[in-house]
Amino acid sequence: MSEAGMISAPWLEDIEARRDDLIALTQDLIRIPTLNPPGEAYLEICEYLAARLRPRHFEIELIRAHGSPGDSDKYPRWNIVARREGRAPGACVHFNSHTDVVEVGRGWTTDPFGGELKDGKIYGRGSCDMKGGLAASIIAAEAFIDAFPDFNGAIEISGTADEESGGYGGVAYLAEKGYFDPSRVQHVIIPEPLNKDRVCLGHRGVWWAEIETKGHIAHGSMPFLGDCAVRHMGAVLHEFETSLYPALAGKRTAMPVVPEGARQSTMNINSMHGGQTEPEEDFTGFPSACVPDSCRMVIDRRYIIEEDPEEVRQEVVDILEKVSAQRPDFSYDIKELWHVSPTMTDNDAPVVRSVSRSIEQVLQKSPEYVVSPGTYDQKHIDRIGRLKDCIAYGPGILDLAHQPDEYVGVDDMIDSAKVMALSLKDLLGA
User: Fold this and answer.
1) What is the maximum span of the chain, computed from C-alpha positions, in angstroms?
2) Does 68 share its domain with 196?
3) Is the Cβ–Cβ distance between 196 and 412 less than 8 Å?
């Protein structure tokens, strides 16, 4: 029995009875290896969800995001939107979960795609982020429909692609096609793993850019005849360390960002490539002796709502110009990859109030209001769909996302499913 066992409503207790189904559903989802990049098994997981929801009288749409970043015939960007109409017109509550997962990485002691159940936890890549949340929302919707078959309005469940790489082949595409128009959908809950007693109101802003420093190729035994692009990039990194990072540490926000370290502006060096392309794994030879004439670095800058987006870009450009003034023959290019503004839903929005009341009833405690350190698909629902009544709420511990031995707790999923089901009852007036 989870800590929510004190709730006496029989239909909520029915969610406890669905524990084995919830476990099996979560395991099945984990065992579909929807790795992104490159974007594998997207159609497979959409078809699995369709087979699950169609018998429950959900109308199913499988939607390929043609022309979106990453979409190809080899790796098509497939999404599913399942809609269950009620007895009469009314509001629509939409549960949106991304189906893609990040690379496995090293350090696992369990099978990353095994879905192993151990000590009340289900292990696997994507268990926490966010297939456990997807499974919990399905169980919540099914329990609600069984208890209130004559509800008014509509329930939607979506499984969308590419959230881990920006969401442009998933929620952004659907938003552009009108699926999140406020006339069609009124309330959105995204079951991201922000902990079961938290309501996530939004996220920080993000600005990604690629910086390239340029040089001149020459023989490695005579580097003085060339110009090393990697050394130029080293000077940029030094300036980042000595001036930019200290400045970012001093920028603090009033947004309730978690964890504490993310309440400031941050920047991650996402990748760096200089010189010759790395050889294939089975190549046994040696590299040739060349001075690298190009070095590329991708930066991942997260910024707070108090910052001006243009200043976020300009502070990087200013550093590049400073290095240029100090180093002979320094040449660079900078290219913006993508940019998303910070977003935060009001505390008194209908979905916030509803989920907060449900948390109080199920967990017997007041919810914590938080903001995510990284973006998730609320950005597209807000900016493209123009739908403001959107939050993230779901099971799982945020710090486990993208880690080895990622897991989701079964009791946490049960409790979160109860919260979601109660919110459905409230928002649809059942």
Assistant:
1) 81
2) yes
3) yes
The type of residue at 267 is M
Instruction: Out of 100, 142, 162, 382, pick the active-site residue.
Output: 100
Question: Which residues are CB-contacts of 240 (< 8 A; sequence separation ≥ 6)?
Answer: 267, 319
∠ CA 57-63-69, rounded to 5°: 150
Q: Mind listing the pLDDT tens digit for each residue in 129-183?
A: 999 999 999 999 999 999 999 999 999 999 999 999 999 999 999 999 999 999 9
- Which of 71, 162, 163, 411 is catalytic? The answer is 163
Domain span at residue 266 reads 205-275+288-340
Domain count for the chain, please give it: 2
- Please give the Cα distance from 356 to 199 (Å, whole number): 7
Domain harbouring 334, CATH code: 3.30.70.360
Are 352 and 417 contained in the same domain? yes
Look up 163 and say whether it is catalytic: yes
**What percent of the chain is modeled with pLDDT above 90?**
94
Q: Are residues 254 and 209 in the same domain?
A: yes
Q: What is the CATH number of the domain that holds 55?
A: 3.40.630.10
Say whether 100 is catalytic.
Answer: yes
Reported pTM: 0.89
Distances (CA, A) of 127 to 29, 39, 117, 161, 297: 8, 17, 11, 16, 31
Q: Are 35 and 422 in contact (CB under 8 A)?
A: no
Cβ(429)–Cβ(31) below 8 Å: no
Q: How far apart are CA 394 and CA 378, in angstroms?
A: 14
Return the DSSP state at 109. Answer: S
